[in-house]
Amino acid sequence: MRRIELAPGQVFEEKMLNRVGAFNADALVAATNIVEDVRKRGDEALREYTAKFDGVEMEEFRVSQEAIAKVDPKVAAAIQKAASQIRDFHERQKQQGWFTMREDGALVGAKVEPLDSVGIYVPGGRALYPSSVLMNAIPASVAGVKRIVCVTPPTKDGSLDSAILEACRVAGVTEIYAVGGAQAIGALAYG
Which residues pair with 62 in a beta bridge? Predict the structure, then answer.
């Protein structure tokens, strides 16, 4: 929403409503180029973009289980409580397959199967939301997805937020990578 304030005596004109939309075509082109570069050059491109945009040199993007540090007990308890509630909700909406034989002998129905793997993007920087992990990974876990991959930007020292890592652990994330931005989306899409 935009507020237009008129000065005393100023007349409203339609051109005052002209505004730039939220869509940024230049950003779309830049993101498309980054994803394409990651498709072509793989980890080499990831390293360059991580250095450029996140200000950190990364040799290894995958986060080891040993790197998942202890989180404040109050934060861990809050994450666990939220995860339990989210899991309960999604367990209740889980779909089941069904089959039936019609009188004419035709077998009809629906087969419900989980995807083999899913990738989730968790923003970093000033807006750290462990809930992004929970709200994306838990439904996949409940559905039976075996491989859940999380990408999230590293901090300047190359580490990840401990609450994000705890949420990954609680939600059933199987792989975590310290990479963000369009390059992370490219890595999820192309490996």
Answer: 177
Q: How far apart are CA 58 and CA 55, in angstroms?
A: 10
- In angstroms, the CA 113 to CA 97 distance is 8
Closest CA to 170 of 133, 124, 120, 140: 133
**Per-residue model confidence as pLDDT tens for the chain (191 residues):** 567 788 898 888 877 776 666 677 888 999 999 999 999 999 999 999 999 999 999 989 999 877 777 789 999 999 999 999 999 999 999 999 999 999 999 999 999 999 999 999 999 877 789 999 999 999 999 999 999 999 999 988 888 999 999 999 999 999 999 999 999 999 999 98
Contacts 24+ apart (CB under 8 A), 91-94: 91/142, 94/142, 94/143
Residue type, position 60, single letter: E
The amino acid sitting at 55 is G
Secondary structure E strands in the chain: 98-101, 107-110, 117-121, 147-152, 175-178
